[in-house]
Amino acid sequence: MSVETVKEFFHSKEMKVPILKFKDISTVAKAAESLGVTPGEIAKSLLLQVHDDFVMVLMAGDKRLDNRKFKDTFKGKPKMPAVEQVLAMTGHPVGGVCPFGLSQEIPVYLDQSLKEYSVVYPAAGAPDAAVKLTVAELAELVATDWVNVAQE
Q1: Predicted TM-score (pTM) of this structure
Q2: DSSP string spanning 65-96?
């Protein structure tokens, strides 16, 4: 179970991070409403394919990917993988994709848009699960690096 791998991830880091469960937080708007926060505070996780490699980018939920910035940063055009590839690469279903407890090693990048917030809510392995973390904790836990790939 995907949420279980997220729990195991935090346990391995010796962190007590509660998994917040909701009826449905499968979209940024639904998640923000359920949590009582702004859409920007939802840290959306995008799994993208560049050539033969995969990267994960987390950005503020109210931002969209800027393809030109992405291409300049990662030296290739971003491609959205098929649903089956997302599950195979991350171990998480679409709607619950997060950088915790990944089934494959994937570099994780945080977009500068997250720096607007002190606390964010990334998914936690299922469309009805999230965690609350400071941006500093998120960066320390999973970030390969910071990037600027969101539209202005």
Answers
A1: 0.94
A2: B-HHHHHHHHTS--BPPPHHHHHHHHSS-TTS
